[in-house]
Amino acid sequence: MTNTIKTPVEMLDHWAKTQGDDIYLRQPINGQFHDLTWLQVQTQVRQLAGALRHLGLKPGDKIGLLSKNCAEWFITDLALMLGGYISVPIYPTANADTISYALEHSAAKAIFVGKLDYWAEQESAIGGEVLRLSLPYDTMPSQYHWNDLLTLSEPLIDVPYPDIEQTMTLIYTSGSTGRPKGAIQTFASYGWTCQKVVADLQTDQQDRLLSYLPLAHITERVAIEGSSFYSGTPVAFVESLDSFVEDVKRASPTVFFSVPRLWSLFQKNIIDKIGSDKKLNLLLKLPIISGLVKRKIKQGLGLEHCRLLGSGSAPIPPATLNWYANIGLNICEAWGMTENCAYSIINYPFNREKLGTIGKPVAGCEVRQGDNGELLVKSPGLMKAYYKDEVTTQASFTEDGFFLTGDICAIDPQGYLSITGRVKDNFKTAKGKYVAPVPIERKLAQDTHIEMLCVIGSGLPHPIALVQLAEGAALKPRDEVRASLKATIDSINPTLESHATIDAIIIVSEPWTIENDVLTPTLKIKRHVLEKQFSELVDGTRGAVIKWQDELK
Length: 553
Description:
The protein is of the alpha/beta class.
């Protein structure tokens, strides 16, 4: 099978030869696109790879990449591949400790730094022994600037393509339960997955992609960057958070992926503009008006030309997917992990009857349940190992090569999968009974007053739900919010086993963010962090009550 997989640098040469003058990368600067053709990208890739050789970096060296998404991120990634270097992408929002750990653990010799919001707070993580190279943006001081690198030496040409089994990148997991682990992905695993995405989703040169989710995360690296390598599709970028909506409209993507948090934010903004969900539902029942409203909403989001919408990285409430389907936006939920190149299971073609599932396995991916209901997956996209961690690697695979995902699943008669919990998320209450929090959270999430939530309960008599209110709900009178949440608890508790019923909902006062270490860079909640913060505080709260954090003892 590997002899049919091509590397991204082979594909770059192919597109430069067959459509070299076509626009590939579209970088907005001051609200205007600065376009690069395939030939221009190829030229910069070769110049950059030549500069790295000139600076004494050798094939096999690890090189970090710390930047928000931009055209130069793609160019740097391709240059590292061409030169035989191993890339170590780091989230642009990562704190100094995380950056330092990734660089030290990987033994990176150099790092590219680029578009960053808080580089002054991150700079201390990069010691003097690591060579700093900068992308052409306002960023931390570096030994070599982008423009200097492009003229530093002769271009690197006439070198063999990377061996397909060669390590391409170390992708560090988001670390929701501890220190990040470095997943070793080869050109074979990455190439197989990207080619599969292109074949399944049928992306081609007529499509338009938009890159804005972190490229340090495997989903964006495969679904957007990777699919562009193998489909010849042009890619636009987002200039800043402030210009996001205009950037999406300017890019007019035909394929668009997002995460549940953003889909919920888009939904809220739409409802706020119309006035209420009730008013929207009324408008959607009017034959001619319905079509106009749907078109207006799509245009407002910049998604009127989208043929494919996706959601991943975390569970999305079925009610949210159903709401979007009602306005003509069918969002395909997908499931994947860093360890399997993020592409294994997807609800595509979109099947509205299966909302709430993550879909079916793609061709080439095998799935089965372990004895404890754990989802086990096997595909050519699986990582080679965890870097410098043989013990965890061995514990993560079955003898016949299936990866233990840590997700608990259910499989229906049609082969559609649902994630019902996490093996490590399940906790034991003070009564000695185990509780699976994820199914409870899915039920609670139907309450529109809730933006984010986390059910905890290790060592407590009963589970407690910690809640972040949605923006609109936070402005409402407490009694009104309390009544809604109380009704939600009262409707859910009878459906739960007695030991799993919710004792209380606590509305927390401090937002959960990446900066305060409650969220991972992929916006997953770190349950163990909240357990540590709140278990003692909420112990003793009884009777299906609703309290704000400032009302606790």
